[in-house]
Amino acid sequence: MRLRDFRPDDVADLVAAGDDPLARWFLPGLPAPDTEARARWWVAEGVPGLRAAGGVAYAVADSGTDRLLGGVALGNPVPQRRQAEIGCWVLPGARRRGVGTTATRLLAGHAFATGTARLELLAVADDPASQRVALAAGFRPEGVRRDAAATPDGGRQDLLAFVRLAGDPDGPVRRLLPDLPAGRLTDGVVTLRRLAPGDADEMYALHSRPEVVANQAPPVPPERHVIALRCRLAESQWLTGTAARLAILDAGTGRFAGSCGLVYAEPGTGQASIGYALAPGFRGRGLATRAVRLLAGWAFGPVGAARLVAGTVPDNTASHRVLHRVGFHREALLRGRLPGLAGTRLDDLTFALLPTDLTGDPPG
């Protein structure tokens, strides 16, 4: 592929790009439906206007056919900081081919070569495709800009800031939480995969059960929209290293059996924490033990953690049995560590696992 100027013969492809539902959600300023007039304005006036304001926009084209694949631009320059914002879009038929990553790298390299010191790439929180482009192009997660962008329905949404400096390496950013091999972990009996938006109903039903709520801190039932947001942002949180949230599936039927997760809050010390919950119909079969064992193996392997901890309320004996079967050792009772109801405090019984503790035998 190559970067070139936009031309009048790109108009049809520009209209197709503007009518893509995904683009319409993340670029709410587009007319609905998109029009040739808007596309012609972009080629004749929009791009020159961006240049006049200190930015630039290029078409991303197939180097063989010269057909439009997408676009990439620099905008919102801050000259006194030698800073600009970079963004790209890709036509639906050209996605999953590295077009966005390559175009972003090309334009970033040009910007740094001509004096830019800092580039920002802003992505909507539930747009993991753009976040993957940012990470693959060498941009590091830097923070959240709350309610910084509009949505087509008149609401507001967060933007995640990814930043690359002129002195940063050109290669992809090393992620704290790598993707699962082949997208899942399985031992043939249970399967773990990343939590997805479609899991919201079953997650809400599970985490609203009284016995599950009782083992949370504080023991308060979740709100439906909070669970839905957790499922919708699971991939984004995984990419930025916040948390790895997984669904536990019955490998034989594919049915949702529970959830588990890993938070790698102390990469400097190598310590990560885990949690898990199982739906009633799947309890008593050793599935939680298998799921925790799979999660621990991934944490000690591709993630590179050196120590896992799990906190429980002292009377959650079922969870204690799961941890013992995997190889966790009881370490400490932390008095009053967790928030309870009405200003009360709860004790936290902590278990820990080292790589040499992990047992390989399936549960009896």
From TrEMBL:
**Residue span(s) of domain N-acetyltransferase:** 1-166, 190-347
Asked whether the keyword Transferase is assigned, the reply is: yes
- Which GO MF term does the entry hold, naming one? protein N-terminal-serine acetyltransferase activity
> Where on the tree of life does the source sit, at the highest rank?
Bacteria
Instruction: Spell out the SUPFAM superfamilies in the cross-references.
Output: Acyl-CoA N-acyltransferases (Nat) (SSF55729)
Q: Name one Pfam family in it.
A: Acetyltransf_3
Q: Which UniProt keywords apply?
A: Transferase
Q: Which InterPro entries match?
A: Acyl_CoA_acyltransferase, GNAT_dom, Ribosomal_N-acetyltransferase
The Gene Ontology CC terms held by the record are: cytoplasm
Q: Name the CDD domains on file.
A: NAT_SF
Kindly provide the name given to this protein in its UniProt entry: GCN5 family acetyltransferase
Task: Please report the organism this UniProt entry assigns to the protein.
Answer: Micromonospora rosaria
